[in-house]
Write a structure and sequence with these properties.
The complex is a heterodimer of chains A (321) and B (296). Chain A has 321 residues and is mainly alpha-helical. Chain A contains 13 helices and no strands. Chain A has 2 domains: 72 residues, no CATH class; 222 residues, Orthogonal Bundle (MetI-like fold). Chain B is mainly alpha-helical and 296 residues long. In chain B, α2 crosses α12, α4 runs parallel beside α7 and α10 packs parallel to α11. Chain B is 74% helix and 0% strand. The chains are: A mainly alpha (321), B mainly alpha (296). At the A-B interface, α1, α6, α7, α9 and α11 of A face α5, α6, α10, α11 and α12 of B.
């Protein structure tokens, strides 16, 4: 097991180096002179030259990369072109907001996705199954930014469809302003639903197909033949094994939420890393863009590493090689 | 003459590919949801191609007197903040949406298939290096890779197509590599090799036709993802630039007026859902018909 973890850690290193090269190369993809683009229209030649000097753009690419990676390892991702503040400070101020949002969205999607998937598989080819799968397909096909806008329209602005009135308890839950300490989750209700719906749909579909695959296997037939109750067969024998592949999807979903938070944070004006990225793109502040993209990708790679390791714990049959 | 016709008919009958296609189409046509999905896609394509010629109106024609009008007989989907007819804009936008979906998947598909087939066929170092590069591309979650590319290239429809195309490459490469590895081990490949066929010939004539099923399924599903990603980028102001009637961009414009003109947000959003849903359903159906083992 330790061997497996070490090997998996070693495999992660080239990916992380590759990610850093790609993120660093973004600067070279900018059409024209990056310093001129970042300085903005109407900037004097002196300002552009100063910026070029400050960012070290006059050095050869490999020198620039060497500087970028050695600083990054020390936690220094340069300074924002606009505010002049260290990129790491800008990110750390927003980091936990995005992580919190993604964790809540993951919990919601796993909770809804698992229940929907299990019910669908247990009652496969019934109306319940068809209904759940249709809803899941909608969840999969719905742009989450549109869902966010609809939720704001319905619950934050109170314009429910067909002139319906919002019940007081519902208003209480989804009201946008927290009323005191420990109430910050209230602001998260609509964004979390927005972010988590697509993931719930994916997990529901995955759980269903995984459950059906397991239910069709010989050992389940044997358990049934032995007279084990259907409930026990499903929840003790089938579910345990069916959930193993779902774990991988959960890891991927969490990463997807970190990336997808860009849209949700923009809609709900949440000051997380996603919004920081978008603001930086609009202001042509590329060190910030590089920083946020790098941090999100590294977290994603590390989460996947953890998922792979837990996958091994869950399924002892996996060949370590 | 009649003898010749009979020979041809017999040859067609015994052709395994024709038989496989017949079985596939029979299975696909049995799947009602997939048929509906396919028909919706066909309808959307026709609307995208023919719609602008039938309407003959300018999607950017402004009429400020009529701004923010709710849906009515004159304006089926209402009007926007410039008094532009939302229905007309949506019809014209269909072409943009399909263009982004098909072209980006085409670009991503071509690159992904070449990378996957080369990695799977040659194996060894080539496989290791190319697949590590794909791992690196996959390390950028969700929309992030496309966003990063568009952020440096600048917001435009072409750049979105390129970004979403690159974003699709690893998905194709992985699936094609896996399928190539399976097919490469089959005996008939050894047989053609023994007959002295070149690598190119083996790849294009013997491997590619046999791994088309997963490629087609992946392409259909990817179009749905590509449309969602591209509309997300347009929503962030990084896609097609105003006044282009791109659905994601229309949603972005509608945000500001949501409190008094919710139709500006509802209709473009519903169109995205319908198109993406159709591709997803059709993709599901194709997968079930091409690979019945997957159907569960």
């Amino acid at each position: 097991m330790t061997k497996y973890i070490i090997r998996r850690l070693l495999q992660t290193i080239p990916v992380l180096i590759g990610v850093s090269i790609l993120v660093f190369s973004l600067m070279f993809l900018i059409p024209g002179d990056p310093a001129r683009v970042m300085a903005g229209e109407g900037a004097s030649e002196q300002t552009i030259e100063n910026l070029r000097e400050k960012l070290g753009l006059n050095d050869p690419a490999y020198v620039q990369y060497g500087r970028f990676i050695t600083s990054a390892v020390k936690g220094d991702l340069g300074n924002s072109v606009r505010s002049g503040r260290p990129v790491m400070d800008e990110i750390s101020a927003r980091f936990w907001i995005t992580v919190e949002l993604s964790i809540y969205a993951t919990i919601l999607s796993v909770f809804i996705g698992l229940i929907a998937g299990i019910v669908s598989a247990v009652r496969h080819y019934t109306l319940t199954d068809i209904f759940i799968m249709i809803i899941a397909l909608f969840g999969l096909s719905m742009p989450n930014f549109w869902l966010g806008l609809v939720l704001i329209q319905w619950f934050a602005l109170g314009n429910l469809p067909f002139g319906m009135d919002m019940p007081a308890w519902l208003f209480d839950i989804v009201q946008m302003r927290p009323s005191g300490w420990g109430e910050s989750w209230r602001q998260m209700v609509l964004p979390v639903i927005t972010l988590g719906t697509g993931g719930a749909a994916i997990i529901a579909r995955m759980t269903r197909s995984s459950m059906l695959e397991v239910i069709g296997q010989d050992y389940i037939r044997t358990a049934r033949a032995k007279g084990v109750s259907e409930r026990l067969v499903i929840y003790r024998h089938a579910l345990k094994n069916a959930l193993i592949p779902v774990v991988t999807v959960i890891g991927l979903e969490f990463g997807g939420f970190l990336g997808g938070a860009v849209l949700t944070e923009t809609i709900f004006a949440i000051n997380g890393m996603g919004r920081l990225t978008i603001d930086a793109i609009r202001q042509r502040d590329f060190p910030i863009v590089q920083g946020t993209v790098l941090v999100i990708s590294i977290i994603f790679v590390l989460v996947n590493l953890l998922v792979d390791i837990s996958y091994k714990f869950l399924n002892k049959r996996i060949d370590l090689n | 003459m009649s003898v010749q016709t009979e020979k041809v008919t017999n040859a067609t009958r015994s052709n395994p590919r024709v038989e496989a296609f017949k079985t596939f189409s029979k299975r696909l046509l049995k799947n009602k949801a997939a048929v509906v999905g396919g028909l919706v896609i066909l309808f959307i394509i026709i609307v995208g191609l023919v719609g602008p010629f039938i309407l003959k109106t300018d999607p950017n024609a402004q009429n400020l007197v009529n701004k923010l009008q709710p849906p009515s007989k004159e304006h089926w989907f209402g009007t926007d903040n410039f008094g532009r007819d939302i229905f007309t804009r949506i019809i014209f936008g269909t072409q943009l949406t399909l263009k982004v979906g098909f072209l980006s998947v085409f670009i991503g598909g071509i690159i992904g298939v070449v990378v996957g087939i080369v990695a799977g066929y040659y194996g060894g170092m080539i496989d290791t290096i190319t697949m590590r590069i794909m791992d690196i591309l996959l390390a950028f979650p969700g929309i992030l890779l496309a966003l990063a590319i568009v952020s440096v290239l600048g917001g435009s429809l072409i750049n979105v197509i390129i970004a979403v195309g690159i974003f699709s490459v690893p998905a194709f490469a992985r699936i094609v590599r896996g399928s190539t590895l399976q097919v490469r081990k089959l005996e008939y490949i050894d047989a053609v090799k023994a007959l002295g066929a070149s690598d190119g010939r083996i790849i294009f004539l013997h491997i590619l036709p046999n791994i088309m099923s997963p490629i087609i399924v992946q392409a259909t599903m990817r179009i749905a993802t590509a449309i969602l990603t591209a509309s997300g980028l347009a929503f962030l102001g990084l896609g097609a630039q105003p006044p282009a009637p791109e659905w994601g961009a229309m949603l972005n414009e509608g945000r500001t007026y949501m409190h008094n003109a919710s139709h500006m947000v509802m209709f473009p959003g519903m169109m995205i859902i319908i198109v993406v849903l159709a591709f997803n359903i059709f993709g599901d159906g194709l997968r079930d018909a091409l690979d019945p083992k997957m159907k569960q």
